[in-house]
Amino acid sequence: MALTLAEKILQAHIVPEACSDTKFTKGEPIARGEDIAIKIDQTLTQDATGTMTYLQFETIGIPRVKTELSVSYIDHNTLQTDFKNMDDHRYLQSIAAKYGLYFSRPGNGICHQVHLECFGKPGKTLLGSDSHTPTGGGIGMIAIGAGGLDVAVAMGGGAFHLAMPKIFGVKLTGKLKKGVGAKDIILEVLRRETVKGGTLAIYEYFGEGVETLTVPQRATITNMGAELGATCSIFPSDQKTKKFLESMGRSSDWTEQKADEGAVYDKLIEINLDELGALAACPHNPDVINTVKSLAGKKVTQVVIGSCTNSSLDDLESVAAIVKGKHIAPGVEAGIAPGSRTTLLMASKAGILEDLIEAGFRILESACGPCIGQGFAPNSEGVTLRTFNRNFKGRSGTADANVYLVSPETAAAAAVTGVFTEPETMNYEDPAYISGVRVSLLDGKDARLSSEAVLECATNRGMIIPPLPQEEAEKVEILRGPNIKPCPKCRDYEPSLKLPVRLKAGDNVSTDDIMPAGAKVLPLRSNIPEISKFTLTRLDETFYTRSEEANFANCVVVGGENYGQGSSREHAALGPMYLGVRAIITKSFARIHKANLINYGIIPMNFVNPEDYDIIKQGDVLEITNIEQALSTGCEFNIVCNGKTIKGTNDLAKRSRDILKQGGLAAYTRNGGN
Fold first, then answer.
1. Which of 71, 127, 391, 518 has the least C-beta neighbours within 10 A?
2. Contact status, residue 517 vs residue 395, Cβ threshold 8 Å
3. Active-site annotation holds for 513
4. Average confidence (pLDDT) over 93-113
5. Rounded CA gap, 179 and 433, in Å?
6. What angle do CA 500, 505, 507 make, to 5 degrees?
């Protein structure tokens, strides 16, 4: 039977003994929603989530990672205002040396960009402790974001469990017009699907339009597929992929990956690239989409180009083409952050960097930076255009800023005009377009950057430290700074719970709302007692104080639709767990956050009747009376509120129920669970 590309890769990685309750036949579609377990070939971590991941990995007691390849990246906490971040970096480097990981040093670039350039392989599986790990789908990988504890288990050789996703096909026809970018494709998908439309789904791109897109363009789309709530997104691995890997000095890593002829998708989305115009995600959610044409003339105070979504050489070249010979408009502050050291070197050799500097761009570090509130915050009530992936309120570092997500082309046009401007109306020549199709500089078809120059930059990997031989690794001492604290133990399982409602929240609560990022909070990622003081403070500044006054006693949080959207940060589960949250009841959850709650022993459930959400008030006491029965048999949860019994869904796989009964994934793994 014809299979989609995603199905083919997933089936090739099934670990039968870890999902014995699921029946499947090789070559036949797996029933959607079935619990499956897959072998993970590669893992990645970044420093904001990595320290906690490796603290957990150490407790597993395995002398060396068991994956084909694992990489520890430093790209988030590079603002070093005191000892904390650098202490974490030293810990991570010593961990990499001790346990057999590659280590990407600070300044080498953003994990997803670097992994695409140096390590990603078509047809492989990648699990990363960052929600934008699906970037790897741009070269034909099943690349999934997850919590750090899931990644630690995978590094130890454990399978990764997930519900078999639906496969949504996105058929692309035509070709992008000059001035319209890959970012506009994913914004169009978000416009149609919303930030919760991809929950428990994989988006698979195919069609003649795919052939017109470079690998960096494809990676932009798969990267921001995370904003759909999707498990991941994937493109075929074709001749464009082969050329990209050849340019990176990795021709032997290429394999063709494509869907079978006649593959059937659970849903089909068709986009004609000929008809697509410039789009913008308006404040304060990635699916609030409007046309740039309708926003034309609106004053802009800041432009930032970068992040793991749009910081490739292709992106920088598009910006340089628009701003060449022009200057940043008065009243606009503009910054640009190349995604990797390799990209920065290539941009320098091609003269792109010179064009950007002459136009007045501030050149920022090759790191996540402003995307996570680490510097370059906008002015109060500012209008900032960013080529990033998220525009949640306050994420930029300025609480009242208005953040718009746009393509590099739209950002560049606004930078030099001072207002929202359709890029296609700008008078400029873009040498990257040949016969109306973008051709990557990495293909070596532009005289400014020969294939030899590309290869020289791509293979200059002095900022990546390879694993030590095991006999040397055994002698390595782990370096721990005073801010690095052990991961707190989950609370013990209880067969019934009486819980006051400590907070009632609305729809689309993000992990930024639950556990903020930014320069003040990020250095505390390795210290749960300290970082927990910021838990849910964006929704209620008194949450920690009230938890402390209650002696961190057991409690429950109630939420609306799509609770926990955004980052994979498990701190958004760890903080609440530490403060006594034992259950979260919502109308619906984002995938990664729900998995993280289970990993830390917090029961996630949805209202069987969404209208019951309106019955509950903050301060009410809820009694969950049948936890033992629900986790043993899979029946619905009974929640008693003010004398009325409310039903909570129990869509948890047996393994997830067993994890909750044992007090979290760490205990479950130590006790021999798969």
1. 518
2. yes
3. no
4. 97
5. 10
6. 145
